[in-house]
Amino acid sequence: MRISRRGFLSAGLAVTGCFLLAPQKAIAASLFRSPVATNMLRPPGAVKEDIFVGKCIRCGRCVEVCPYRSIQPLSLKYGVYAGTPMVFPAEIPCYLCMKCVEVCPTGTLLPIAKEATRMGLAVIDRMRCVTWKGESLCHTCYNVCPYKEQAIRLDEFRPVIDEKACTGCGICVHGCPVSTEEGKKAVNIEPIYSGVRS
């Protein structure tokens, strides 16, 4: 079977187009995917993630007012989420000063009491926690928690999270001495209240 020159060029262009479009679709999808994930959280009082990007005007007031520099604006690689505020607790946790909710002009960060804040939920990885594995007696997460004996307690010397009181501030994550190759810790904050579906 003989292919005409026009047929050969058409087939070549179609194959080339498939190679060029496939990565672009993946890139386009990532530009609209929420960046909220394990240890990537919104500041206190944040509205649900599905309306966050439309409500936040990216004014940067929450970033500027944070005395700990816990809140960082997202870079352009995050597409439509660029400029929106995030907290990366493994780097700098939220110390619940609540100044960010006071300056938000749009209500994207709603006023909320410290103890009622739910940025996420601390989850202890019992396969990585040295205390749960019986390798050492580490209580760093317990010792640094601002709500010890409420959000975290010790059960037979092992840390246990109480989901009713955990604010998701990430101070425990920041303090945890165990790090994995994937960049996670033995205790991580899962953004279960953000409305993001994984």
Task: Looking at this protein, list some descriptive labels.
two-stranded antiparallel ribbon; 11% strand; alpha+beta; 2 domains; single chain; 6 strands; 198 residues
Order of helices and strands: HHHEEHEHEEHE
Largest sheet, strands/sense/barrel: 2 strands, antiparallel
Structural class: alpha+beta
Give the overall shape: flat
Domain module count: 2
Report the mean per-residue pLDDT as an integer.
Answer: 89
Give the beta-strand count.
6
What's the total helix number?
6
How much of the polypeptide forms β-strand, as a percent range?
Answer: 5-15%
- Could you name the ranges where pLDDT drops below 50 across 5 or more consecutive residues? none
Termini gap: 49 Å
Radius of gyration: 22 Å
The strands making up the biggest β-sheet line up spatially as: 1-2
Helix % is 25-40%
